[in-house]
Write the structure tokens for this entry.
Amino acid sequence: MAENRPRAGLWLPVAFGIGIFGYFELSFEPPLWVGPGLFVLLALLLLVTRLSTASVFCLIAVLAVVAGFSAAQVRAWQVAAPVLKREMAVSLTGMVEEVRVTSRGERLIVRVEQFGRIEPEQRPGRVRVLLLKRDKAPPAGSRIKVFGRFRPPPPPVSPYAYDFQRALYFDGIGAVGFALGPLTVETRGEVPWSGRLAALRTTLSDRIRARLPGDTGALAAALLVGDRDWISERATEAMRDVGIAHLLAISGLHMGLVAGCVFFFIRLLLSLNAKTALLWPTRRAAAAGAVLFATAYLLLSGASVPTQRAYIMTLAVLIGVVIGRRAISMRLIATAAASIMAVRPEYVLGASFQLSFAAVTCLVAVYETGVWSRYPVRGRPLAGVTRYVVLLALSSLVASTATLPLALYHFQKAALYGVAANLLAVPAASLWIMPFGVAVLLLMPFELEGAALVAMGWGIDGVLRLATIVQSWPHATHTVVAAPGWVIGFTACAGLWLCLFRGRLRLGAAPVLAVCLAVLLVGPWASPDLLIADRARMVGVISEAQIVTTSGRSGFSVGVWRRRAGLPDMREGEPKQSSRFNCDSLGCAITASRLGAVAWSSDAQSLSEDCQRADVLVTRIRVPDICPAPRLIVGPKQIRPGGSIAIWLDEPVPKVIYSRDIQGNRPWSSVTKRLRYKTN
């Protein structure tokens, strides 16, 4: 136990994160004074009370939990802004803050100046609007006017799925919609710094993709300026299926390579002159230059969560180089995590934050065991190359294992050949792609980046070809049914126990971790039989390893339903929908093997017929008092409050879960009452 005492402080960021999770798990919004008030009370208790060392640490841990709860609560209060209450078609006037490219067209983030006839205190502060494909998005800072249809931010497409309402709430977006008419650019106003960075990012991305067409240029733009909008779904899916999708996100690997290349380049230049090399502090000068370049890279790339983590750690490493101290440590990771959580507590809920810190925490934990230095090099032919390959394989294995539970939980899939693919992809990225990428960034101001960009493209083409080949191997991915949250909670606790403790004490977490991983891999959870989208816009039936919907198109909702049910993603070229309900103007119906006859009624005439023959009835109109046939009715009382619904029918009493119940009455969900299940 004594060897673990100096590491007790590493658990404080963990306690801080637990407090954040505690706030978001509430089904109601507590008064604003609860978190800060309890924090002040505990702090005073700690100051005025004499306690034992163990009691003091326990109180500090509780204080950290309350601090995390308070940080999330205050953050939710800070970003509070009006949210649209109902769907409407209005004229929007505002300033373009950001432009994104999607498969459906260009999407704008607009700061609202006028929104129909809604009063200023009730209209959304920011909205997201999808343009018609014939419209060209104006640059950031433009003042536009467009007529469109807008609705409140959508709830999760399935219970326990990603909460879009919460994410958009913390981004300050109070409505989403699409243009119904042409866009008019009225004036070009003063562009804020964020808009200028976005415009610069767009300009550089266009230059890169003009020289490197297709997915090659799109991946180069993603690596250099953080613009991932142009990467095809096919390329993204291939890299995700083989476990190298982390190369798409600017993370520790890319930030470290960029800062390292700049550091050694500056130091090389300074060492060319003997006088400069002898009299100047070349290490400090090179470190300062690397910090400045890394900061510019952070801002240019959009400052995603992995990039922020990588920047903080790179900064600490460079400071360690200057002062002559080892910077790679758990304290550094704890500092980076605490810094991000304190500023943006909502990031803790995201897969990006969790995957990023899981990988780097496990890598540092293995590094602290000394395994990196146990492989002898001196006096052995090719020992350096062999050592590099062995350590690369070990790093890939550690990172893949660390992120496997989270990948299964968030995406319901795991890449079975991830280690093998990373053995080839990571050296290509570190030894070829990113060094030429640094050269591209340095040469772009002089418009001399052409040759370096072409060489970078060769490496990217090789990685894409590798992803396609490995994806075609049998059983390249393993899919599972979505697991409940408590499983990943136990897994995270066991993983942290294994990484943060030293000695034999850490081994106690190994059995728990193994059991949790086995449970996630097997996926012993039953997928729902029936899924209903927000306000019954679409109904889906999961039967015989396929999903059947009332819509013939394969949209985002269907993709999420398939993934959470453990069904494989549809490949490019496959039919958009393998089968669908038999639909007419009055409604839809289908007979499934386990469910019987399922009907979706939108008309009184069809409703009367469905009441006589349907086993499961979904309708937005009032159900008559006499409706004898259905054993389950989901009617207007269940549908009108909105939100998605998941139903399991293979139990004596059907199990019904509402996304609104899970969200609760929170600022982002706009719920005034909890729902109750009702059957006839």
Notes: The CA atoms of residues 42 and 63 lie 6 Å apart. The chain has a mean pLDDT of 82. The two ends are 61 Å apart (CA to CA). The first strand starts at residue 88 and ends at 102.
